[in-house]
Amino acid sequence: MKRLFNTGLVSAIALEYLKFSSKIVRDIMEILIGKLGVKLDDSKMEGLQGIKKVNFNYYPACPNPELTVGVGRHSDMGTITVLLQDDIGGLYVKMEEENDAGKGEWLEIPPTPGALVVNVGDALEV
């Protein structure tokens, strides 16, 4: 079976990305928690960050998009999710308050290619 990519190179890139993104997530968390008037030492911050992982989800353009499934509607179980958007879209948010979309409805977020979207995960919700 022919490989479509160099696994060693992909692993090295993923590890470098994990190191870089972990710093960004920690900075974001320190700002959010600081705004609540809370100061955490390093061990508590590491515990709050929890397991660090990188997911690569790639969905090539489909000639029949109505037949695609993707990841599906879900909440993010971790602390913070940083999503690099492309031009394909597919990001939805669940509306918690009554508005034009309606309470509890899922609203599609128009993609902004190259934008970083920061989602507060279940572990950080207050």
Automatic annotation (TrEMBL):
Keywords: Iron, Metal-binding, Oxidoreductase. Pfam families: 2OG-FeII_Oxy (PF03171). Residues 44-126 form the Fe2OG dioxygenase domain. One of its GO terms (molecular function) is dioxygenase activity. SUPFAM superfamilies: Clavaminate synthase-like. Coiled coil: none annotated. Belongs to the iron/ascorbate-dependent oxidoreductase family. This is Fe2OG dioxygenase domain-containing protein. The lineage of its organism: Eukaryota, Viridiplantae, Streptophyta, Embryophyta, Tracheophyta.
